[in-house]
Design brief:
- The protein is an all-alpha fold.
- Among the domains are: 202 residues, MFS general substrate transporter like domains (Growth Hormone, Chain: A, Up-down Bundle), CATH 1.20.1250.20; 56 residues; 61 residues.
- 80% of the residues lie in helices and 2% in strands.
- The protein contains 20 helices and two strands.
- α15 packs antiparallel against α20.
- It is globular.
- The N terminus and C terminus are likely disordered.
């Protein structure tokens, strides 16, 4: 009788674990989705707010900046005072800010709301992985982290699809209002089913100096990168760009010095002395800079040059995101039997091949039929690496540091995405302008028109060049066909360079993971580390 009762309790506890995972998965999905979902709503917002794309830029930047800056802070607060408490507070904050954003009547309210929403998003994202690690044990932990990795992969790749559908059928406020009912469900499930973790730093002083220095350093670096992204022709050594980046680096160096010297630091800097942990953050950075940053340029290719709508683009990008759903749970099971190190390294190699495949097929007549093989390989990489990275990132980390380890992985993933978007954009613009400079003069048009159009194309950049070349007025010119052909070839030249660059970034991650990660073989009874 007692045995039956015990088994029934274990079964109930097991069911509660998976419901708790659902709550954490919803929070993670919403937090990451809102990094990208706004992109497809911008054209509608331009009309509704009667403004320009430039003025709307801070709707994107506010979330990116605040999200990255607060990831480590929210992680530490969770480690100190209980991860469930901070995760739950972050959920509530995110839901309230989402509702405010949906009702926003002007850009100032929306920009502020996006910043507040990002604080909630960073708390949900940074603590979900650590909560899963503390709510699950044994083989279930690997499977649960694999499923959470699937959620991360799907959320980062499904922005165009979900955003496109909501905007097309309900207008832009829907991308914020949709968070409210799902957020409320996640709050209820979290309260009932998620187990709290110990308050490891309950009696310790909060490291305010560390929090301020880390936040200021990350803010300065990312803001400098955003400035460079918005002004690609500004020199890297200009005060407006390098001044911010250099200030950020200096602040982070000071942060490291302070953390070494104080008694209860925000972050244990000894984590960075472990090659295995360095390998995990390198992989996170490569994933962001290679895969996630490339999605921005792939979306522009499909919408601006091939001509798909936002919804049509999102549907086709399921070719990438669906693999996260398929592979996540499978990877969680396989990682208990096979080397996670070589699974990660091999998956990144597959992604590198995928980018090369895309680079080789890009031409003025490229269609989805030619892109999908490379996109599938990208999706397999994303679907494999994210779940494995979650599991590997938690290995060897003390329970009281799990929140911070999770936060750092997300910081480097986000930093990689931001730097990747800027770096790939500069590569694309350089190759785009190089082709224009060498071939636009071959078009038979008046020299005054040539000079003006060349200047307009360079100023607009690769994303908007298509709109200029194929405008109704210009299409009626006798030289239109030759001019349009040069512009499309220039864009393809830049896009191929972007794909090749992403291949190199992911390949570096592949080599780095093979060198730095430990080859950990696990069974139910023993754990053996091999270098």
């Amino acid at each position: 009788m007692k045995v039956g009762i015990i088994k029934m309790q274990e079964k109930n506890n097991g069911a509660k674990q998976w419901i708790a995972l659902a709550a954490m998965g919803i929070g993670t999905f919403m937090g990451l989705l809102d990094v990208t979902v706004v992109n497809v709503a911008l054209p509608t917002m331009v009309k509704d707010f009667n403004t320009t794309f430039t003025n709307l830029q801070w709707i994107l930047n506010a979330y990116t900046l605040v999200y990255a800056v607060t990831l480590m802070i929210m992680s530490k607060l969770g480690d100190m005072f209980g991860r469930k408490k901070i995760f739950l507070g972050s959920l509530v904050l995110f839901v309230i800010a989402s509702a405010v954003n949906g009702f926003a009547s002007n850009l100032l309210v929306l920009d502020i709301g996006r910043g507040i929403q990002a604080i909630g998003g960073s708390g949900m994202m940074s603590l979900s992985m650590a909560l899963v690690a503390s709510n699950f044990s044994g083989k279930d932990r690997g499977l649960a982290l694999g499923i959470l990795g699937s959620v991360i992969g799907v959320s980062t790749a499904s922005g165009p699809l979900i955003g496109g559908y909501l905007v097309e059928h309900f207008s832009w406020p829907a991308i914020f209002f949709v968070n409210v009912p799902f957020g409320i469900i996640a709050v209820i499930l979290t309260v009932i089913y998620v187990k709290e973790t110990p308050s490891y730093g309950k009696n310790q002083r909060v490291d305010l100096a560390g929090m301020v220095l880390s936040a200021a350093g990350l803010f300065a670096i990312i803001y400098g990168l955003i400035v460079k992204e918005n002004h690609p022709h500004w020199s890297w050594v200009s005060l407006n760009v390098m001044g911010w980046v250099a200030a950020g680096i200096i602040l982070l160096i000071i942060f490291g010095i302070v953390e070494v010297k104080i008694g209860n630091p925000m972050m244990d800097v000894n984590m960075f002395k472990k090659p295995h942990f360095l390998g995990t953050i390198l992989v996170a950075f490569a994933l962001g800079a290679g895969v996630y940053a490339f999605n921005t340029y792939l979306t522009a290719l499909m919408q601006n040059y091939i001509g798909y709508s936002a919804l049509q683009t999102g549907i086709r990008q399921l070719t990438i995101s669906v693999w996260s759903l398929v592979l996540g749970p499978i990877v969680g099971i396989l990682s208990a039997r096979f080397s996670k190190k070589w699974m990660i390294s091999g998956s990144l190699l597959i992604g590198s091949i995928g980018f090369l495949t895309i680079a080789l097929v890009i031409d003025p007549s490229v269609t989805f039929a030619e892109l999908w093989p490379g996109m599938i390989l990208m999706g397999i990489t994303n679907g494999m690496v994210n779940p494995l990275l979650n599991t590997v990132g938690m290995e060897g980390v003390a329970p009281q540091e799990m929140g911070m380890a999770s936060g750092l992985l997300n910081v480097f993933r986000q930093l990689g995405t931001t730097m990747g978007v800027v770096g790939l954009g500069l590569i694309q613009s350089s190759q785009y302008e190089k082709y224009l400079n060498g071939h636009l003069s071959t078009v038979n048009m008046p020299s005054s028109a040539l000079s003006g159009l060349h200047s307009a194309l360079v100023k607009a950049g690769p994303f908007s060049g298509h709109g200029i070349a194929f405008s109704t007025r210009l299409s009626q010119a006798p030289f239109a066909a030759d001019f349009q052909k040069v512009v499309v070839h220039a864009y393809d030249n830049g896009m191929s360079a972007v794909a090749f660059s992403s291949a190199v970034i992911v390949l570096i991650g592949c080599i780095g993971s093979a060198i730095l990660l430990k080859n950990r073989v696990e069974s139910s009874d023993v754990k053996i580390d091999k270098d």
